Amino acid sequence: MSHLHRLLYLALLMFAAPLAAAPLRVGVSFAIPPYVLTHEDRGIELDLMREAFAGSDHELQVIYLPLERTFRMLEEGKLDAIINVKPGMVDNAYLSQRVITFHNRVFTLDQTAFHSLQDLQTLRVSAFQRARQILGTEFADIVARNPRYEEVARQEGQVQRLLLGRTDAVILDQRVFYYYLAQLLGEDKNDERYPSDRVRQHDLFPPTHYHFAFREIELQRLFDRQFTRMKADGRYERIFAAYGTTSSAENIKASP
């Protein structure tokens, strides 16, 4: 190999190396199992994202943040993608096709009188962040009049507080609620501290369809191409099955 050829070869290596590992900074909310398992760096949505970019020139860097910060950092260009976005929730981004559907429900204990959304005006209510933007204007107007309404970034303690009687109503996705319930009960299904048989589920909200958001249209197009293939060849459903659930509302009580 001539000296000129060696120089050209080295130059190609220098330019090719960074391209082969271009970082894809993905902002992800704190643990929302089984969609995101922070302590294990996996989950349904993380697995879907990783599978879509497997074999590409992009290396995922998952960055765990409060939900509100993920939106802000994407708009500021500090992230390349975020999960769980509805149209109109973020500017200067390209939304993928629908990726996942959440089934948000109100959970109470049996001693709590609850019949309609209007009851949320007087109860102690704990919901996920951005619930007011996601669950509709009627819901937003009702809870705006409730000084005991809160939205929290970390959902680990919400189920426990409900079972201990420290809050009256919890608003969570079904899979998230039952995952945490299974974690609390562990091996003891009759743990008297956590009266799971007294939990009541209220189906008041329509399904929420979420997209992934990308700063660059090329990333969004690449994701959509691969995602379409994943749904066609069965990989999409297999990822759900690995967490004991399906993509539909059936078999919703996912296990850890």
UniProtKB/TrEMBL annotation:
Transmembrane annotation, as ranges: none
Entry-linked Gene3D superfamilies: Periplasmic binding protein-like II
InterPro entries, A to Z: Solute-binding_3/MltF_N
Keyword Cell membrane: no
Domain Solute-binding protein family 3/N-terminal, first and last residues per copy: 23-247
Keyword annotations of the record: Signal
One Pfam family matching this protein: SBP_bac_3
Signal peptide coordinates: none
Family the UniProt entry places it in: Belongs to the bacterial solute-binding protein 3 family.
Name of the molecule in the record: Transporter substrate-binding domain-containing protein
Organism: Aeromonas sanarellii
